[in-house]
UniProtKB/TrEMBL annotation:
Species the sequence originates in: Cariama cristata
A single Gene Ontology CC term: extracellular space
Principal location class: secreted
Protein name: Pulmonary surfactant-associated protein A2
Localization of this protein: Secreted
Keyword Aminoacyl-tRNA synthetase: no
Residue ranges of domain C-type lectin in the record: 24-124
GO MF, one annotated term: carbohydrate binding
Keywords on record: Calcium, Collagen, Disulfide bond, Glycoprotein, Lectin, Secreted, Signal
Gene3D superfamilies: Mannose-Binding Protein A, subunit A
One GO BP: ossification
PANTHER family documented for this protein: C-TYPE LECTIN DOMAIN FAMILY 11 MEMBER A, TETRANECTIN-RELATED
Length: 125
């Protein structure tokens, strides 16, 4: 279970928390869900910046609660809803079916990546 002894931030209606641990996408998602939340999912620039503050604090890339759907190159929130906000690097996403997860870099921009990399766990509640 995710111990909330790390940092906690409020943004809009959400509470964001990180335990500072780096794990693969599935493990990050499981730890967030077991704590009663889900992976941090930016729905606007304010939320993206709040998630970015964790990425900068730990100086580690983080998985977002966004995955590639059935159509290669088309990403959606892990609850299945279409993206209403994005912050992709230019020419991203470019994995076309091979990179199904989304990383946030230390400048707040996104890139599609494989899901087996070790990234910072940031949950939202």
């Amino acid at each position: 279970v995710l111990a909330l002894t790390g940092k906690i931030r409020e943004v809009g209606e959400k509470i964001l928390a990180s335990n500072g641990k780096e794990v693969n996408f599935e493990a990050a998602l499981k730890s967030c869900e077991s704590a009663g939340g889900t992976l941090a999912t930016p729905m606007n620039e304010e939320e993206n910046n709040a998630i970015l503050s964790f990425v900068k604090q730990y100086n580690r890339y983080a998985y977002l609660g966004i995955k590639e759907g059935e159509t290669p190159g088309k990403f959606k929130y892990i609850n299945g809803m279409p993206l209403n906000y994005t912050n992709w690097y230019q020419y991203e996403p470019n994995g076309k079916g091979k990179e199904k997860c989304v990383d946030m870099y230390t400048d707040g921009r996104w890139i599609d990546r494989k899901c087996n990399l070790y990234r910072l766990t940031i949950c939202e509640f």
